Amino acid sequence: MVQDIFELINKEKNRQNNTIELIASENFVSKNILKAQGSVLTNKYAEGVPYKRYYGGCEIIDEIETRAIEDAKKLFEVKYANVQPHSGSAANMAVYRALLKPKDKVLSMKLEAGGHLSHGSSMSFSGMDYEFHSYNVDKETNMLNYNDIRRLALKVKPKLIIAGASSYPRKIDFEEFRKIADEVGAYLMVDMAHIAGLVAAGLHQNPCKYADVVTSTTHKTLRGPRGGIILTNDSILIGKINKAVFPGIQGGPLEHVIAAKAVCFEEAMNLDFIKYQKQIIKNAKVLCDVLKMEGFKIVTNGTDNHLLLVDTKKSIGMTGKEAENVLEKIGITCNKNMIPYDPTTPYITSGIRLGTPAMTTRGFSEKDFVEVGKIISLSLKNSENKQIQEELKIRVSNLLKKYPLYEEGDLHE
Ligand SMILES: *Cc1c(COP(=O)(O)O)cnc(C)c1O
């Protein structure tokens, strides 16, 4: 029965309401974004780009998609945008198809160092279709070492260099990457999926100034609907990119999602959004400091952005898998994560990744994150003590009560 599906949606809403969400790639969208994404636009086919479609009846869709494109350009200070990719991985696939031929060489960040599956994993189309080589982070500092990357680029001579990561807690210097790409005659693509919100708020170097192409998701720090975008300043590349998206890898664009992307970009142009992004960083620093005070080892010993990596193995002899499970039982959601030079496997891991975007959206400030840090520390250090875990569950729900998320009925307006 259809009703069962709505009951499940309601259950998921309650789960979101009743847990502390620390997955660094998740966020909570506004009601306007939910509304746009749940709209009648889902009914419309609109293959092609605005005003050059393969279907009739697109005159309003054209206005909507043009609005999303113009907003994206304004927000990221860039000349061209494609807002159709269904996801971050699809955006990357389209760029590879626009710039590369099968088997061409690409240099990207190693998965264990913080890279993404779509940057050359053998399990992903990327690693199957192209010859990927990877740079690691420095063994001592666990940070990017641009001299090492330069040396590797000179050796590999890639056609494309990719900068950008899924679990790197520090700033990335896109200007340095540009210099390296120029030195070896490679294209530079920046995948800013995780940090797009920080970039939009001017709190991280804007890669559009340096890269040939920038890809992103819209659903992480940017706090929009689930989807992807591609940005460039190059008038020739945008043509290739548009063709690679459609008909290259996609059919009809998700115009309901594109409308929600436009809402997201307009929200991101508000001053409130800058305040929100600043608070994300403040909260991450506080969480990091509390865990350090509690004796936890943090990868790179700190954070510049919205996330941190806790080396649970070195700190308390616990794998990431175990730590994720312990925290889940008291109502804290996070994910196990490989740490640089991790000797275990992606299913076990030696650490956890913690991010502050979602709970900052809910209203958590520094003092709430001090409490979150203390709860995490107590929980992981006393994982066998049932009574302590029960007490911590109550502390979690007390924190959440102060900041309700979606009200009853929100999703079915
Ligand atoms: C999340 C992420 C992606 C993929 O996004 P999906 O929408 O899940 O396909 C791509 N690149 C990076 C760096 C990411 O963090």
Give an overview in words.
By secondary structure, the chain is an alpha/beta fold. The mean pLDDT is 97. Helices cover 46% and strands 13% of the residues. It is globular. α2 (31-37) packs antiparallel against α10 (255-268) and α11 (271-293) runs parallel beside α15. The strands form 4 sheets. A 7-stranded mixed β-sheet has the order 4-10-9-8-7-5-6, sandwiched between helices. Strands 11-12-15-14 form a 4-stranded antiparallel β-sheet. Strands 1-13 form a two-stranded parallel ribbon. The chain has helices at 2-17, 31-37, 59-76, 88-99, 125-129, 146-156, 174-184, 196-200, 235-249, 255-268, 271-293, 312-316, 320-329, 357-362, 366-381, 386-401; strands at 20-21, 48-49, 52-53, 80-82, 105-109, 131-135, 160-163, 187-191, 213-217, 228-232, 297-298, 307-311, 332-333, 335-337, 351-355.
Based on the model shown, name its key terms:
binds pyridoxal-5'-phosphate; alpha/beta; 413 residues; single chain; seven-stranded mixed beta sheet; four-stranded antiparallel beta sheet; 46% helix; 15 strands
The major sheet is characterized as:
7 strands, mixed
Low-confidence stretches: none
Q: Residue-averaged pLDDT, rounded? A: 97
Strand order, main sheet: write it out.
Answer: 4-10-9-8-7-5-6
Q: DSSP strand (E) fraction?
A: 5-15%
The global form is globular
- Give the names of the bound compounds: pyridoxal-5'-phosphate
Write the layout of secondary structure elements.
Elements: H1 2-17, E1 20-21, H2 31-37, E2 48-49, E3 52-53, H3 59-76, E4 80-82, H4 88-99, E5 105-109, H5 125-129, E6 131-135, H6 146-156, E7 160-163, H7 174-184, E8 187-191, H8 196-200, E9 213-217, E10 228-232, H9 235-249, H10 255-268, H11 271-293, E11 297-298, E12 307-311, H12 312-316, H13 320-329, E13 332-333, E14 335-337, E15 351-355, H14 357-362, H15 366-381, H16 386-401
Parallel strand pairs: 1-13, 5-6, 5-7, 7-8, 8-9
Antiparallel strand pairs: 2-3, 4-10, 9-10, 11-12, 12-15, 14-15
This protein binds pyridoxal-5'-phosphate.
